[in-house]
Amino acid sequence: xxxxxxxxxxxxxxxxxxxxxxxxxxxxxxxxxxxxxxxxxxxxxxxxxxxxxxxxxxxxxxxxxxxxxxxxxxxxxxxxxxxxxxxxxxxxxxxxxxxxxxxxxxx
Amino acid sequence: xxxxxxxxxxxxxxxxxxxxxxxxxxxxxxxxxxxxxxxxxxxxxxxxxxxxxxxxxxxxxxxxxxxxxxxxxxxxxxxxxxxxxxxxxxxxxxxxxxxxxxxxxxxxxxxxxxxxxxxx
Lengths: 107, 120
Fold this sequence. Notes:
The structure holds two protein chains of two kinds.
Chain A: E1 4-7, E2 10-12, E3 19-25, E4 34-39, E5 46-50, E6 54-55, E7 63-68, E8 71-76, E9 86-91, E10 98-99, E11 103-106
Chain B: E1 3-7, E2 11-12, E3 18-25, E4 35-41, E5 47-54, E6 59-61, E7 69-74, E8 79-84, E9 93-100, E10 107-110, E11 114-118
Parallel strand pairs in B: 2-11
Antiparallel strand pairs in B: 1-3, 3-8, 4-5, 4-9, 5-6, 7-8, 9-10, 9-11
């Protein structure tokens, strides 16, 4: 099974700052099938990025994804108030699909 | 617009079977290339993918639950279901259903989630 390790566990930043979240896989992710989700308290996760770097529908361009193989990054260029949340990476290139443990972005 | 809605008991006794249904609206569950998934989140914890049923009827489950888990589809009702046998307190979680389309796209449509508590 592919283990996804996210870092840092918590990221404390201010409005307007740049956020860089890391996701490292224990082995290469098949076909770069790597996604990022945002989850706010009491809500279902929302898809932000799929296929490493493609933004999902209606996702603002301040969110971007990059990486390949085993190292992936989610970047939020300028933090808006609604961006403070927990972010998860997920691989879906081969069963079983797995999620990282999450990174909390807080003020 | 595709909409998914989970339903089922909010309380299950230990050793019994947890049964949940996800009703899909705004699209056919038999659509080509769709994966219909269950994901859970224990209280205060992260997301755990449980398994999926593909539009062909084939399934894939997380190994740790495979011996207790069945995911099935009812095409006449446009629903898919989860059955988890012999539950314990460790199965207490919010359970989400979600869809993945074919190709590189990921889990793009999610239900709101339903809390299932395992307790006597």
